[in-house]
Structures are given as structure tokens and as C-alpha cells.
Design brief:
The structure holds two protein chains of two kinds. Chain A is mostly helical. Helix content of chain A is 77%, strand content 0%. The termini of chain B are far apart. The chains are: A mainly alpha, B alpha+beta.
């Protein structure tokens, strides 16, 4: 049977075209891929390797670093504090920023725009300034205690040396990140097809029903994104905690995993630091995969 | 076409990234293997038989050299020596200085009789001139016994090579003499064209001093004179210090206007460019060194660290010589002066041995640039310490002497005096370093750890605040047992406790011991901590603080000084005169801390409570926590003194009180015989002049009662821990070193007699021969003092060594954490239990991380 050469030609051309497309894509991706490899993947692989070796990285130690990390009371305390912080902060942040987004959407466009800008300013404020504000507000003789004593006739609170420090840290995190998350929510709102709202209203749905059955499902991909970003951002709050409390904060409640990592590095306890970092990465990856499975799949 | 462009663009991007990566990977390394050439080469050109302190050293425009030394050592008698060289120091001709003898007189017979000589004549500064003449100052002190009044006269003379002495007459001196006044030459510089720069201080008369409208600025004058006739050529309307000159321009650092450039020809302001004010101030602030300027107005600053060139455009000095590779970089030498030869860019430096207190022997060193000399060899030894340290520099000098082909690099995290170029002070402690970089010890540690982990770390670590125990545990340090094996000179009681399973990773090179000073026979009875505390409680209190009032009458002032600072009878002396809570804390902490916590076991609650209670008991006894006392004496009070070299020694306030005979005992970190000597001196002088402090009425001194001599002695500071000693410096070799042999050789150099025997202010040595050498020095100086009736503190280092058991590493973080609750407890703001709980809670994280 003779082959139909006219049919084979377009196929070959298509394959060739696809090949070229892949090659072009790879070329464009190559720089950033190389960057990710050099600055993220390779160091991570090295971190994993070091977690099984001694400090100098020349003697295999099996799981002893991991066992030592689990047995270390400092790690347990830091992990518990970090988990508590994440568990409280992330849901609160998601909820508050979403409420803010809903409210901003209901405002006049000009006012909404102003709010958007205002809320983003917190992201631009340098950490050092935030820390100064902290100190002015929450020091033993600071503004908050002055208000408590002089306005409410209450006893002063030692914010920075008691568990109150934890709530101050939570407040700071929420204050700093609400605006950013609100913007993400607003983008999510805009992505929902307006036709769906129209159809729901034609079907007689009230505002609440529209929110539950149209808006929320439409926001699931955004929720996934915001959750992951918020989770990652919780680790950035260490800068504030460190600048205020130093390597060993007065209140143990704001002693986070990054404090431990920082101190272990200073003490050259790199093997345990790597093991703890790997554990943290595994936990974070697990959470992200779970979230992806729960919410991200909706996107597909 | 577009497609092709895209491809090219992508390829270019990839290429750029790859290039960047290669560049990044190619950097770093420890610098080994890159041999560079071209450096100054040192040659000792000291005249044969040179001795004494280089009083004056000049290089003239024709390159000839002129050196005058003064030798006051006992062997030499008091004498001046002078040499001239016309061939750059290859050959020297000794000049006659016998004429100086007429100005050197022995007045000891007066002093032995307890009298003051009616007239004392002495020689001051000398300035050789190109003609071979010497200008010199003669001081005449006259004492009028009937009025108990001293008057002084300073005169300038010139002596020609044939020995003719004539007055060097300048108008200001003649005027002052005519009016019965006096003029002092503060600074003198020979300038090109037969000119002489003089900076004069014109002593005001009594009437002028009493005149409130008197212009004190008029006491300082600067002018340029004819070097032959003394005739003034022009006045300079400046007042200041730091005077430099090249062949055309004179530079003066004016008190008010800053650095000024002046044309030598006519004294007019020069428009010649000079380095920025900031750079010039670095030169001005560079003490313990010497500076000069070349004809392009580039300044050179020479200190023990090396030579820095500051060009007219410079924003940072450029390092031209690293002092580590030259004799003058050794802390044993101080730089006296530098002469620069513009013709061949060579220099001659006059240095002197600052450790030889009797004669301060000088040397002349010539530095000539050699293009072929190896600047950086392929053998590089890198040594790191947190703080710049004299003992390390001395060790490096010795190592360099033994290994001249090796390039040494000394890296320090903190260099507080780098801008001034001078040697830094000893390490003070605390968590932040010196200087204005804002860097903390923690930052420095992180940077060091990064280097250690990626294999580019230093070869040798000086453990002067680095986490010794952590570094050993993590396997960063090599076993140095091999270096110490067979070294019978090491003081085993100090070194033995630092071995772990037959291995030693950090070798102590210096240590100090918390020590209590007191009268022999009494201080020994306080060896037990409880007995010491009981004695303090049973003894008298410290005097009530009296606020000073400048409006007091003379008698009230005398009473005040006597009460606050005067010696007092034994029965009125508190046992331990400590006047601030922080001083008390520091005194007790040193001998208690080893029992309070350890890195491995954490806090011992029982001992912590005992320590807190002890501090509170003494604080209550002396009222240290009273708000008034806390306000007056908030911080710790430690003064320091030096003995002529670079080293500085701490002198605690309690020791000061003891040596002024105001308390029965005093505490000090003891790590130097110089502290023992100073205490002996102080006790003697406080006994000689019981009315110390009567500054207003000088005649009262005559009625002073001389107190009986004391016999001071020392014991280990009583405390909760027995036999604690503090290794102040330790040296370790990193396991990642590429130079294991050289590193071990450096450790050996640090332990060598030529390093250990010198007291650099870091503590006692760890070798027996060095301890004996320092002790011999102490007793040799002792002989002179014994003649004066001074009882030197006996010090049996063998007994001391036998009492040492526990090496303890200072931990400033824990010390700071513990102090705050102690203060709260003493002021009654918290209970003992709560204070202990607070400390345990605040240190919980610290110890938890280390488990």
C-alpha cells in the first residue's frame, strides 16, 4: 500500500513545530530554572544531605540528627509555638482579609481604591520601623500601658515578658498582611464570572445564597493561593520577633523555629539545624499538598 | 527573522546566566597559591652600639641621617649618644656628646636628706640640624624654700660641631625672660631653606592668670624662624598640634579651623590640595604611631598595624605595608619617628623596645621597596580572633620570625581603633563589639561559621569569646595533644583539666584568677565564702554618700575628700568597700558562676539561690540598692592603667578602695604582676599621705601623718566554686585547615618563651619559664621599691596553681540575664524564689537548645 505522502507532511510539520515550541519554552525557562536549581534545589539537596551527616559533612550519622532534634526541648517548644502561631494566624488572616475585601467591594470605586492603597502601605513599612512602633506601644511604660492605666484604670501588662507578647506578634502579623491578602481576595472576586451571579439572581437566590453557592466556590483557587502565601508569610514574622526580643526573647511564647535555627547556626549546630529544616519542609509540603488536594483540585 | 531574534536572545540569556554562575563558582578560595611580588623590605641599620631611647631622629634633604639617643639605664648612667650617617645608614659616625654632661647633675643627696635642691638643671628636647649643629632645650627649676615656691625657665641653645655653645635667641623667649616669665617649645620642625618652625607655649604670669579677661589663646604661638639667626620670618595665626611639612607646604591641625595648608616660602595660606577633613582626622587621631607627607601631599600613617597611604582623593586609606610582616608591627616595639626619603621612596623608622622599662632600647629600621620581593607567598596562614589582641600579634611576630617565607593574615571581627591605626584596647566583654560598624558578636560568629562550613575558614582560631565548648563538640577543632606532648614547660594544673579523653582541642595561652587582696594574716581568714560574708555583715558599713558642692569652703572640701577618699583607721574600714550593685555582682560572680551553671547541666537552682542571697546580704549591709546609691553608682567602676607598652590593666573600684586604705580587702581579676605592683605602690603612697585629697591646702601636706606600712597578701576570691580560673585566650586549629603543620607551628609559637614571657594584658602565661621570668621581673623592680619602704605583695604562683581546679569560660549572655533579677531581688521588687524562677525561665531556652 502506498503511503499518502500529502497526509504525512502536515504531521511531520506539526511534530517539528511542537519540538521547536518545546525547545523555545525550555530556552526561555532555562535561566529561571537554572536559578531555582542553583539557589533552591541544590542547597535543599545539600541541606538534606547534611541532615544525615556530622557538622563538617564528612561523617554519615544516620538518623541521629533527627532523633536529637525530636528529643531537643528547644525544638519542641519552638515547633509548638510556631504551630500555635500558624494555627491562629492563618485562619484569622484569611477571614479578616476576606471580610475586608467584601466590604471594600461594597464601597464606591474611588473609596475602595483608596482603601486598597492604604492597606498595602503596611507591607512597605520597614521592619525596623515596625519594631520601633512595637517598643513604643508595648513597653512596660509604653503607650498601651499608659492607656490601660490612665484611661481604663487597669493594671499595666508586661507585654513583652509574658504570653501577651504572643498576641502582640499575632496582631502585628495580621496588621501587616491583611492588606496584601485583601488585594488577592479582590482579584479572586474579579475572576468570578459575572454571568454566574446573574443566573443565580434570575433563579431567585438571595445575597447570602449567592455568596455561598457562587462566590465561595469561585474563590477556592484564591483561597488555596492565599493560604499557602499566608503560611509562608508567617515565617517572616521572625524578623519582628528577633528585633524586639533578640535570640532569646523574654517571653518563651514568641520563641519560634527561626529563633532556634538562628541560634543553632550561631552555635554551629548545623546538622541538627538541617534535620529540623528538612522536617519543617516536609510538614509544609504535606500541608500544601493537602490543601491542594482539598481546594486546588476544584480549579481543574 | 523574529524567530531567529528570539532564539539569539534566549541563547544570550542562557550564556549570561552560565557566565554569572561560573563567575560565582570561580570566586572565593582562601587565597592560597597566588604568589604576588613587590613589597617594602626591612633592614636593620642601627648604629653599632646603639642603646637608649631614640630621642631625636632626622633625615635631611641630602639623605643623611642624624640620631640622638638617651640612655638612662643603671648600667649606662645617664648619658646621651649621637650618630650621623651620610650613606643612608650603611656607616655611622659617633658624635661627641660629652657637652651634655654639664647639664646632667646628681641631686640625690638632697632627696636623701629630704630636701629640695635650690636649683635643678636638666636637658630637654634636642634637634639636630643639617649643618651638624644641635638645638637643645635647657630647663632650670628654682626652688624658693622661704616661700615654698617653684619657678622654671626654659632656654634654647645651639651647639656647633666644634663644641661651641651659644644661646639661640628668639624674640618670644627673650621677652618672656625679661618679664620674669617662661616659654616652652612644644613642637619644632626643620623646614627647607634654612627655616625652623616653632610652636611655643608662653607661660602666663600670676597676674595674667588671675585676670579673668586674660586671653588664654595668646599663650600659644606658632612662627617660622631663620635657623641660623633665630630671626622670625613670619608668624602663623594658628594654634594646634599635628604639624607636617614637605618641601613646599606646612600642614597644621588648628584647634578651631582643622587642617590648614601653608606655603613655607611666605607663610601664606596654600591652595595645594590635601586629603579630606575626615581622612586628615584619622591621621590626627592616630596615636602611638607616626605620620609624614610627601611632595604630592599624600599622607602616610605608620602604626603597629602597618603603613596606610592617604592620597588627596582618598575616601579610605590604602594599605601600603602590613605591620604583621615587619618588626615595628610587634607589640614589643613602639614607633618613635619615621623619616621619608622622597628620592627613592624609602623610609627609616626609629622604634624602641617598650617592654624594657629601664632603657627603652631603640633600633633604626630602613624600608626599601623591592619589586622582586614576595608580597604574598603561596604559604598563607590565616588566624582569626573576635577582638584584635596584642598577644596574638606577638605570637604572629614570633611565628613570622621562625617562618619568614610564610605570609600571615590576621583577621579580626572587631577593630575599634582601626581608623586611628593604633592598637585596640583589650577586649571589654559584652555582646556587641567595638567600632562603629554596628556588628555584634553574633553577626561575627555567623560570618565565621559560614566560612568554616564551606571550607574557606581560617586555619587558626583564637577563642577569645567564640563558643569553645560548641566548637569542640562539633568537631571543628583539631586535637593538639601532639603539639603539647613533650612540652614540660606547660603549667599542667592549667592545661590538664582541658584534656578530653587524652585529646586537647583548645590550648589556653593566658589566664586570670579571681583574687581577693588584703592584709596578710587577715585575708587568709576569709577564704571561706560564708566567713567572708559574715565578716562583711559584722564589719562597719561604707560611708554615707555626700553630694559634692563646688561652693563649699576650703575646710568643708577637705573634710569631704577625707571622708570619701582618705585613708582611715582599720576599725573604721568596711571589710569590702563596694559601692554599686553591679560592682558587687561582678566581684562575686567570677568566683560563683562555675557553681551556678554549666553548658552541659544548665542552672543549679540551689547555688543560684545562695549566690543571690549572698549578693542581697551584702547589698543590704551597704545600702547598695537604695535609690540614692543606685543613682550615684549605677554602673560598674573599673579604671585601667598601663605600664608604658600597649597593654592595659583593669583596676577595680574595690581594689582601689583597698589600696587607698579605705577597706580591709579588695577584689581583682588577677592576671598580671603589674597589678600586684600597682597595689603595692598605692598602699605605700596612701600611707605616706594620709590626707590625700586635700587639694586646696598644699601646706597641710607637711603635717601629714605617715601610716605604718601594710603587708598585703592575696587569696583566691572566696565563692561558691573553688579553684575557678578563666582562660582568657585559647588557641585552636580548625579541622578544615589546609596548613595543619603551619597552624601547629603557630600554636607552638604562642606557647614559646619569647611570646609567653611578655605581659600583654591578657593574663598570666601558661608556661613555667614565662611565669618565672615575669616573677623575676617583678622582684627585680621590687628591690627598688623595698628600698623606698614599699612592701611588695608576695606572690607564690605555685600555691596559686595548686589551688586551680575548674576552667571557666566567660559567658556574657548568661551574666547579663542573671544580673537583672539580682537587681530586682536586691531592691525588694521580687522574692528570692521569684528571682530564681525568672533566671531559670529566661535561661531555659538557652540551655534547651544545647541539649
Amino acid at each position: 500500500m502506498r503511503k499518502d505522502s500529502s497526509a504525512a507532511k502536515p504531521k511531520r510539520r506539526k511534530r517539528q513545530y511542537q519540538k521547536q515550541q518545546v525547545l523555545t519554552a525550555l530556552l526561555f525557562l532555562a535561566p529561571s530554572l537554572a536559578g531555582v536549581c542553583v539557589f533552591v534545589l541544590v542547597p535543599f539537596v545539600e541541606t538534606v544531605r547534611r541532615s544525615f551527616f556530622n557538622v563538617l559533612g564528612n561523617r554519615f550519622q544516620g538518623l541521629s540528627n533527627y532523633i536529637s532534634v525530636f528529643q531537643n526541648p528547644g525544638f519542641r517548644m519552638a515547633a509548638a509555638n510556631t504551630a500555635r502561631f500558624v494555627a491562629i494566624c492563618v485562619p484569622l488572616l484569611i477571614l479578616i482579609s476576606m471580610l475586608m475585601a467584601v466590604l471594600v467591594r461594597r464601597l464606591k470605586p474611588e473609596i475602595g481604591k483608596w482603601f486598597k492603597t492604604t492597606y498595602l502601605v503596611t507591607m512597605a513599612i520597614p521592619v525596623a520601623s515596625v519594631v520601633l512602633l512595637w517598643k513604643a506601644l508595648f513597653a512596660n511604660n509604653g503607650i498601651m500601658n499608659n492607656i490601660l492605666v490612665n484611661v481604663f484604670d487597669a493594671s499595666p501588662v508586661s507585654f513583652m515578658s509574658t504570653d501577651a507578647a504572643f498576641w502582640v506578634l499575632i496582631f502585628t502579623y495580621l496588621w501587616k498582611n491583611c492588606g496584601y491578602d485583601m488585594i488577592l481576595w479582590l482579584a479572586g472576586f474579579d475572576n468570578i464570572n459575572a454571568g454566574l451571579y446573574e443566573a443565580a439572581r434570575v433563579d431567585g437566590a438571595n445575597e447570602w445564597q449567592v455568596f455561598i453557592h457562587v462566590t465561595l466556590p469561585g474563590l477556592l483557587p484564591t483561597l488555596f493561593l492565599i493560604t499557602v502565601l499566608s503560611l509562608i508569610n508567617t515565617f517572616k514574622v521572625f524578623r519582628e520577633a528577633y528585633l524586639v526580643g533578640g535570640a532569646y526573647p523574654e517571653s518563651n511564647s514568641i520563641y519560634l523555629l527561626q529563633h532556634l535555627f538562628n541560634n543553632w547556626y550561631t552555635q554551629l549546630d548545623v546538622s541538627r539545624l538541617c534535620a529540623a529544616a528538612v522536617l519543617l519542609a516536609v510538614v509544609l509540603l504535606g500541608i500544601i499538598l493537602l490543601l491542594k488536594r482539598a481546594w486546588g483540585d476544584e480549579e481543574e | 527573522m523574529m524567530k531567529r531574534m528570539k532564539r539569539i536572545g534566549s541563547l544570550l540569556l542562557c550564556a549570561l546566566l552560565a557566565l554569572g554562575l561560573f563567575a560565582a563558582c570561580g570566586g572565593g578560595g582562601n587565597g592560597g597559591g597566588n604568589v604576588t611580588y613587590g613589597r617594602y623590605v626591612e633592614e636593620d641599620i642601627s648604629p653599632e652600639g646603639m642603646r637608649g631611647y631614640p630621642q631625636s631622629f632626622v633625615m635631611f634633604s641630602d639623605g643623611s641621617l642624624d640620631l640622638i639617643t638617651s640612655d638612662w639605664s643603671e648600667d649606662a648612667g645617664s648619658s646621651y649618644l649621637r650618630w650621623r650617617s651620610t650613606d643612608g645608614g650603611a656607616n655611622w659616625q659617633q658624635m661627641d656628646m660629652s657637652w651634655t654632661e654639664q647639664y646632667i647633675n646628681d641631686y640625690s643627696e638632697y632627696y636623701e636628706r629630704g630636701e629640695t635642691p635650690p636649683e635643678e638643671i636638666s636637658l630637654g628636647s634636642m634637634y639636630p640640624l643639617e649643618s651638624g649643629d644641635v638645638l637643645f632645650q635647657v630647663y632650670t627649676w628654682k626652688y624658693d624654700a622661704s616661700a615654698d615656691f617653684y619657678s622654671s625657665l626654659s632656654e634654647l641653645y645651639r651647639i656647633t660641631p666644634d663644641g661651641t655653645i651659644t644661646p639661640f635667641s628668639i624674640a618670644e623667649i627673650e621677652e618672656a625672660k625679661a618679664g620674669g616669665g617662661n616659654v616652652h617649645v612644644q613642637n619644632m620642625l626643620t623646614l627647607p631653606g634654612g627655616r625652623l618652625f616653632l610652636s611655643l607655649y608662653i607661660e602666663p604670669s600670676q597676674a595674667q592668670m588671675n585676670d579673668p579677661s586674660f586671653d588664654w589663646n595668646s599663650t600659644e604661638r606658632m612662627a617660622v624662624y631663620d635657623v641660623l639667626s633665630g630671626e622670625k620670618i613670619y608668624d602663623l595665626p594658628y594654634r594646634g598640634w599635628n604639624v607636617f611639612a614637605n618641601s613646599t607646604t606646612l600642614f597644621i591641625n588648628d584647634y578651631e579651623k582643622g587642617f590648614q595648608a601653608i606655603n613655607i616660602a611666605d607663610g601664606s595660606p596654600s591652595t595645594a590640595p590635601m586629603p579630606s577633613e575626615e581622612m586628615m582626622m584619622r591621621i590626627a587621631n592616630s596615636w602611638q604611631g607616626s605620620s609624614f607627607v610627601d611632595d604630592e601631599n599624600n599622607f602616610y600613617m605608620v602604626t603597629a598595624r602597618g603603613m596606610d597611604k592617604i592620597t588627596v582623593e582618598a575616601t579610605e586609606p590604602e594599605k601600603v605595608m602590613d605591620g604583621l610582616n615587619y618588626t615595628y608591627g610587634s607589640p614589643l616595639y613602639s614607633i618613635n619617628s619615621v623619616a621619608f626619603s622622597p628620592g627613592d621612596d624609602s623610609m627609616v623608622m626609629a622604634v624602641y623596645d617598650n617592654q624594657n622599662y629601664e632603657s627603652l632600647t631603640g633600633r633604626l629600621l630602613r624600608y626599601v621597596w623591592d619589586d622582586d620581593a614576595v608580597a604574598t607567598s603561596d604559604n598563607v596562614l590565616r588566624v582569626y580572633s573576635l577582638y584584635d589582641n596584642y598577644s596574638v600579634r606577638l605570637g604572629l611576630s614570633e611565628f613570622k620570625r621562625q617562618n619568614p617565607d610564610v605570609t600571615v593574615q590576621y583577621e579580626t571581627a572587631f577593630d575599634p581603633y582601626a581608623d586611628g591605626g593604633a592598637m585596640p584596647m583589650s577586649r571589654g566583654g559584652g555582646t556587641s563589639g567595638g567600632g562603629d560598624t554596628g556588628m555584634t558578636e553574633e553577626d561575627a560568629l555567623r560570618a565565621l561559621n559560614t566560612e568554616l562550613l564551606n571550607g574557606t575558614g581560617p586555619d587558626v582560631l583564637i577563642l577569645d569569646g567564640l563558643p569553645v565548648e560548641s566548637f569542640i563538640e562539633k568537631g571543628i577543632l583539631e586535637d593538639l595533644a601532639g603539639v603539647l606532648d613533650g612540652n614540660g614547660d606547660l603549667l599542667q594544673p592549667l592545661v590538664a583539666p582541658m584534656y578530653q579523653d587524652g585529646k586537647i582541642y583548645a590550648v589556653p595561652t593566658n589566664f586570670f584568677v579571681p583574687t581577693l587582696f588584703g592584709e596578710s594574716g587577715y585575708v587568709e581568714s576569709l577564704a571561706d565564702f560564708d566567713t567572708f560574708l559574715a565578716a562583711i555583715k559584722d564589719g562597719v558599713g561604707i560611708p554615707e554618700y555626700i553630694e559634692y558642692d563646688p561652693n563649699w569652703a576650703e575646710e568643708e572640701m577637705n573634710e569631704y575628700y577625707q571622708k570619701m577618699y582618705g585613708a582611715r583607721p582599720e576599725e573604721e574600714q568596711p571589710v569590702f568597700y563596694v559601692e554599686s550593685l553591679s560592682d558587687l555582682f561582678v566581684s562575686f560572680y567570677a568566683s560563683c558562676a562555675p557553681a551556678i551553671f554549666s553548658e552541659k547541666t544548665g542552672i543549679n537552682r540551689e547555688n543560684l539561690a545562695a549566690f543571690l542571697q549572698a549578693v542581697k546580704d551584702v547589698s543590704d549591709r551597704y545600702g547598695l540598692a537604695d535609690p540614692e546609691m543606685m543613682n550615684m553608682y549605677g554602673g560598674g567602676m573599673v579604671s585601667s592603667f598601663s605600664m608604658g607598652g600597649y597593654a592595659q590593666y583593669d583596676y577595680s573600684s574595690t581594689l582601689n578602695r583597698y589600696s587607698q586604705r579605705q577597706s580591709r580587702v579588695g577584689y581583682s581579676r588577677l592576671g598580671s604582676y603589674n597589678i600586684l605592683q600597682n597595689v603595692s605602690y598605692q598602699i605605700y603612697y596612701s600611707g605616706q599621705n594620709n590626707n590625700w585629697g586635700k587639694v586646696v591646702d598644699d601646706t597641710a601636706q607637711a603635717d601629714t601623718e605617715t601610716l605604718p606600712a601594710l603587708s598585703p597578701a592575696t587569696i583566691s576570691m572566696p565563692g561558691l566554686a573553688s579553684g575557678a580560673y578563666f582562660p582568657t585566650l585559647m588557641v585552636g586549629v580548625t579541622t578544615t585547615t589546609g596548613q595543619p603543620e603551619l597552624s601547629r607551628a603557630f600554636v607552638a609559637a604562642m606557647l614559646s618563651e619569647d611570646v609567653q614571657k611578655y605581659d600583654m594584658g591578657n593574663g598570666f602565661p601558661v608556661t613555667r619559664s614565662a611565669m618565672q621570668y615575669q616573677y623575676a621581673n617583678y622582684t627585680r623592680r621590687d628591690e627598688y621599691m623595698v628600698q623606698q619602704g614599699i612592701n611588695m605583695i608576695p606572690f607564690d604562683y605555685e600555691t596559686l596553681l595548686s589551688s586551680l581546679e575548674t576552667p571557666f569560660y566567660t559567658n556574657s549572655y548568661l551574666q547579663d540575664v542573671i544580673y537583672k533579677p539580682v537587681e530586682d531581688f536586691c531592691t525588694g521588687n521580687t522574692t528570692l524564689e521569684a528571682a530564681v524562677d525568672q533566671i531559670v525561665s529566661e535561661t531555659e531556652l538557652y540551655f534547651a537548645e544545647r541539649q
